[in-house]
Amino acid sequence: MICLLNGIRMNDNNKQIDDAISLQYSSHDRLSEYNRLVYPVVSRRAGGLSLGINVNPDKKCTFNCVYCQVDRSKEIKNLSPDIEQINNELDEWLTVISKNNGSYKGHPLKDISFAGDGEPTTYSQLPQLIENIIEAKKKYHFDQCKIIIFTNGTRIVHPNILKVLPALFANQGEIWFKLDFWDEKSLQQINRPKMSAAKLIEHLTRVGQQFPVVLQSCFFSWNDQVYQDDIYNGYITLVQELIKKGVQLKYIQAYTLARKPSEIDAKPLKDDELDRLCLHLKNELPVQIKKYYEKG
Length: 296
Ligand code: SF4
Description:
Structural class: alpha/beta
Number of helices: 9
Shape: globular
Largest sheet: 9 strands, mixed
Mean pLDDT: 89
Strand content: 15-25%
Bound molecules: iron/sulfur cluster
Number of domains: 2
Radius of gyration: 19 Å
Order of helices and strands: EEHHEEHEEHEHEHHEEHEEHE
């Protein structure tokens, strides 16, 4: 049976997907059940509609953050991030959005982002995919639509990725770099990767010296620790050192937990605590701070 979605002929499966989309973060897991790799969400940080591309449907990541909100408790399906499937799904969504004057369900398209269930730079075909998206943006005349890579930095300096970055940044590309730690101890307490803090800082420095990056920093309470500004002095010192080394920072996203974390001892900062922290950051750093509370 064929039905119409916003004037486009869609099959039964797509009709189910359209019904399943609530355009909120909570819809991600449900969409992966439909074996979909490209999905629309209304994102607070995008300020509108974001087309997310999940190149990590197996949920593997090079970090193991205590606050990770990817649900790995259920059986993990062996979903292959097939580049043809991604291209086809992307084309399908961009056709729908294009025929609706750049919107879906009333929300204008702001970005296409690699924001799935793991670390996108582990996907070997990421550079090819970035080039495909640049072409698709041109084809559908979405010139202002951003392309965003969320990364924890472990593999961002792979030569094949570095090669595509000039084209990415020439086409409204942005890198949103995760930075929650400030030294080896905090890295192992928060993100628990195999890579050292020194190496991750080196990666951030190398990319940030060439291109302006956005820092994404998750702040939360651990073990009911009482909030104090001093806790984050090491973070401030690290960011000051990065700036001194010539790292270009577009802005810092200071956010707290909005969904259930993997470790129950991680709890969101209260609104007034995040306010205090952001004021502390603002007083010490010459960078714009954007804050995102637990509930928006
Ligand atoms: S980097 Fe992201 S996906 Fe990976 S463990 Fe941390 S929060 Fe989860």
